[in-house]
Amino acid sequence: MLKLKTDKYQKIRLKALAWSETSALVFSIIVFFALDMGYVHISLTTLVFYAIAFWIINLGILYIIVSGKNRSFEDPSLTLPQMYWSTFNTCLAIAFISNFDSIFYLLLMLSTAFGTLKVSKNGFILFCFFQSLLLFLALLFKNFYYGESHPFHVILGWVVFSFCSIVLASLCVSILRLRTKLKSHNDDLKKALKVKTEFLAVMSHEIRTPMNGVIGMLDLARDQEDNPEKKYNLQIAYDSSQELLNVINNILDFTKLESNQTQLESQTINLAVILHDLFFIFSRSAKNKDLHLECKINDNLPKKIKGDAFKIKQIINNLLNNAIKFTHSGTIQITAKKETNTNNIIISVIDTGIGIEKDKQAVIFEPFTQADSSTTRLYGGTGLGLSIANELSLMMGDGIKLSSNTPEGSIFSFNILY
After folding, report:
1. How far is CA 371 from CA 127, 138, 350, 360, 379, in A?
2. pTM of the model as a whole
3. Cα 60–Cα 62–Cα 66 angle in degrees, nearest 5
4. Whether the predicted pLDDT of 193 surpasses 90
5. What letter does residue 408 receive in the DSSP assignment?
6. What is the pLDDT of residue 214?
7. Engineering a disulfide at 204: which of 46, 130, 242, 252 sits with its beta carbon 3.0 to 4.6 angstroms away?
8. Which CATH architecture does the domain made up of 267-417 adopt?
9. Of residues 125 and 318, more confidently modeled
10. Domain residue ranges of the chain, discontinuous segments joined by +
């Protein structure tokens, strides 16, 4: 039994192969229908032997692609071999079958179109030359041996078909050139993005290391200072350096996500404990703004699940930071519940803050973007937090969902599939 290997590209090849084999089946039906009508000029025995050889080769191509052996070939789709094989058989049918030329011309054009975006420019031109030559020989053979049509008709049919092939070839060459240019530009863009990502990652690491030393020394100097004014100034410097470190960490996380270097860990965690820990951490910040912080955990929440505790904390930490930042009065809630009859947990952060306008809700998850340019000036931030949180939540579930009305507040929810 063949083991079907279906990566993304192999699935595309299998779909193309299905169309190719369907065309071969239609071709076989047409030939035997022509035989029944008395239009085939070879014996039944010869035709049966030919049909057996035809399907042995077709099934061989099918086996090579389905088994995955095609992956080691320069042309894993076997596009050119299939195009040459199809053309050879169609021209052979034109030579030995009467009254079906128009159908076989159509099959020739289909085999030409099959490789439009899959073969190189030189390979495609060579194939068109081969196709025109083979068709010319088939038509000459039919005319001289069976005298079915006037030589003028043979030449006219060949010229018309060759002209159509040349036009199609020209279009295909233009498309291939465009595809090559796009691929080249795409490769250049990928290289530039890679260089940018590596630069940001290195710079973030390099800046974060001395920043940890600065924060440590400011903390030590603040604790040892007795003068209230100097202590206050050191506290401002300490808070500012913490904010700068947060920005650096966000840039580092963003570069990791952009370069697909972030991986989820799988460990046994207790979500209720994580949520309570975050509740106590943010209680002081909420109290300083006279906000009421609540944590509501549904009774159906599992005590133990497999997940990445650090990244779950990172998502909720970002959502709570934003909730406190953009809420001037009222209540902020953290809720968690398990959906009935599913392995899906919904965590929400609900606030009574300034809300987000409908037309701005889609853009806030884009990197370096905030709901309003004035928001950056009033509240600060790089616009990376929600983008990072959303990307992390997409690794765990379906991403962050937002429901908000200005000025009634917002609900940010994300799910964890366990």
Report:
1. 56, 69, 18, 5, 12
2. 0.52
3. 120
4. no
5. T
6. 84
7. 252
8. 2-Layer Sandwich (3.30)
9. 318
10. 8-149, 200-258, 267-417
